[in-house]
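> tool_call: predict_assembly(chains=two)
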Amino acid sequence: MSEPGASSTDWPLGIHRALTAAGVSLVAYVPDAGHKRLIELCHETPGMRAIPLTSEEEGVGLAGGAWLGGARSALLMQSSGVGNLMNALGMARVCRFPMVVLVTMRGEDGETNPWQVPVGRAVQALLAEMGVEVTRADAPEAVVPAVEVALRHAFEDEAMTAVLIAQKVIGVKHFPVEVPR
Amino acid sequence: MSATTALRLRRREVVATLLTARGDLLVVAGLGAPAWDCAAAGDHPLTFPLWGGMGLAAMTGLGLALSRPRRRVLVVTGDGEMLMGLGSLATIAAQAPPNLAIVVLDNERYGETGMQPTHTAHGVDLAAVAQACGFGVVPTPASHADVVALRGSIHHDGGPLFSVVKVHAEKLPLVLPPRDGALLNDRFRTALQE
């Protein structure tokens, strides 16, 4: 990872390289600002198809169908989107469909939109309860190693895996509150 | 509504016709009656029947179609199942897979839960939704010959294709496919490699 533009803190590029190395050809996503660069990289890559979804659970059906057809996929979303996944994950679990879910976290340090907090706080427990192996990356240099492990477990052990990328890794979106005087 | 009532077909006959001489067709069956209809037509390793995941049949078909661009993929599902995945029609149309067809067996009822009316009973037109998203729509078949023609479109015409088949709201004997999802997964992938 010593090539230009691949510093340890350029984790979107690192994820992209890990996906490519693992043979992932389909990347489905509901956009999040934290995934902006990775989504752009996926769209720019020949042989990799980036697929926007209207809602996150669509990505589980897509991943299952892709696996049946012999392709590997990954699914990108923000933490609130995990709340939309639950029944779909039940299908993936029963069918032993590999899943790689990369979640950019909201509702953590410095969050200024309270509507992001409830699911953000529940994400780890929700995924774990559905049988997903969950890893948190709390520093930029922890992201790519966690994704590499997730990819290996998913496609070699037919596991459902998720990596939660902490909000402090991504940065905080500010919605200023007017202070009364 | 009386005109469409007159055109209602028998779902088991429709599915049996669509799956006749299936060639290398890959099939996803939505949960409930469409899965039983496909099983009644003959269990097949390259038919993937869903026992859950309501709303995901079309997206499962998209994953298959994109990963196997040289194969034709047919999703057979019900109106209730399709209604839960309406957003997926937009997602699929945006990808425009030429090898994917979706056939909705529309009895205007949630057949597995007590025959409650679905939104199509109140006039929601799934084919119009699909067309607005960008699907090519094969008109609702009115006869066995139309269903045979629909089968031809599924095998030969450029997609993504969408068709609504209006069927009777009838309770039929259960014909169940295997319910072990891991087994269905494994046999499908194995059959595709052969």
